[in-house]
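Researcher: Sequence of Glycosyl transferase family 1 domain-containing protein follows. Predict its structure.
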Amino acid sequence: MRIGIDGRLINETGVGRYIRNLIAELAQTDKKNNYIVFVGEEWKPPNERWEIRKVDIPWHSVAEQVELPVIFAREHLDLLHIPYFTIPIFYPGKFIVTMHDLTILHFPTGKATKLPLPLYWAKVLAYRAILEIGLHRAAHIISVSHATREELMDHFALDERKISVIYEGVRQSKSNARLIKEPYFLYVGNAYPHKNLETLLRAIGTNHLVLVGKEDLFYKRLARSNNVIFFGQASDEQLASLYTHATALVFPSLMEGFGLPALEAAVHGAPIICSDIPAFREILGSLGNYFNPHDVSALRWLLIHPEKLKKPTKQDQQELLKRFSWRQMAGETLRLYERV
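Model: Prediction complete. Tokens:
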């Protein structure tokens, strides 16, 4: 088969990590299919069965719906994989889509934008319409969790047989020397409103908090004190060190589809303080130290009593590594490619 992958987000965090690991594992395990990866930046194909097509089309743009379908169609693909919710609905070929969450439907707030409010609300309505059309047109949908799968069925009246749950994976990287001298709590991710960082900043008190992520407008909006350290983006090796030496990872989100940083922290032995939401319960089970994400005092209590936090054992870490494997994720995705 000739399979296309929309890889324009390949160098981003979050979805970018999903795309990078999917391609890395498929490149090692799939010996018969050929792949075209559509990227916006320079990227080296992993072997001779992989090609790139440079496309200078930003995500969340009109061109994504008008020009991108034409570019995809030129390649005469047997199957196209869209790994993000902005589905090019005018593409005439067969495609599957990976849905990571439905945050855009639950938190359509003006705080979550750099745009003027009228334009932002127009985009929210457009996203909803694109999702409605695209999800029903898709040959199949990959959901990264059962929690997201239930959301998809509830919001879009989709047949459960059309949605497969394929978990993301995790790796245990070698930890470098300690990067932060003081004891610290850790947050990894962006600063979008649904991440609920305002609650964390109100609860942190005099404890040191290390924020890891891309410094964009949302991070710049946060009120910070001297005990809040903005680390910026981190390599896998730096993340391993930050996870390993953290007092705990704190994940106060109001909604998540999977929550990869929590899983990564767990396999590096860090306690997880996280909001009591379905995705975290599904992925972490009894390993989470849960709190109501609307209750600052509940979070504050966990932060001032780190000795009471549950911590993943070596056995817990090994079980998570077996259950959540990028190789397994790519294998299940490849079988889906061949089935649809």
